Every structure is written in structure tokens, then in C-alpha cells.
Amino acid sequence: MIKMERKIMVKILRSNPKKGENPRYVEYEVPVEEGTSVLNVLSYIYENIDSGLAYYCSCRIGKCKGCIMMINGKVGYACTTPVRGDVTLEPARGFEVIKDLVVNLEKKVEV
User: What average pLDDT score do residues 73-88 get?
Assistant: First the structure.
């Protein structure tokens, strides 16, 4: 069976609080196939477009919770959430942002 590849727009809320950067959205065009996960999309961006992007990857099966983030406004795990079209990614709400999509899960903050 032939896999169909298409391109989607990925909008990511980027910031680096340690450098005093204000949060800003950056958009990337990414090729995807059926079943591509948000984590695969982030890996593609990091490896092919922007190696400065910070995101967390560990277990790849939704157990460690490290890749928790807001995916199109809803809480989800990058490793287990498939991409179905254009997507907006933001750091998980209620946690201290370390950089970009990486949050400190041990340090809650008021939203």
C-alpha cells in the first residue's frame, strides 16, 4: 500500500524565560503521513528546520508524561497524539516553562 504524504502547518508557542524572551508563535510547514504523531512532527522540525526547538521525548508510549502539552487547545501527549491536520502546540498550562514546549512538571504556577 502506498502511503500518502501531505504538508501541514504547525504553529508552536516559543519562549525562553531564562533569556527574558516573550512568548511568540512560530509556524513551520511539515510533511506528514497517516498516523504521524505530534512527537514525529517535532522531531522533523528539530532535525530538518530548527535545531533550537526545545521539546521533551522519553518513553514514546504515554507513560512518563514528559511530553505533555497543549495540542490544539487540549491537553495531550506528543508521543501518542496523531496529527490530523494543521496543529497549534503550546506548553502545558499550569507549569513553569523551561523553554518552548518543555515544562517543569514539579513546579506548578497559576494560570
Answer: 96
The residues that bridge with 87 in the sheet, in sequence order, are 10
Q: State which amino acid sits at residue 97.
A: V
Q: Which domains, from first to last, does the chain contain?
A: 5-108 (3.10.20.30)
Beta-carbon contacts of residue 72 (< 8 Å; ≥ 6 apart) = 87, 88
Average pLDDT over residues 29-45: 95
Q: Please check whether residue 81 is in contact with residue 62, taking contact to mean a CB–CB distance below 8 angstroms.
A: no
Question: 3-class SS at 46?
Answer: helix
Spatial distance between the Cα atoms of 45 and 95, rounded to a whole number of angstroms: 24
**For residues 50 and 41, is the Cβ–Cβ distance under 8 A?**
no
Residue 74's closest CA among 57, 93, 95?
93
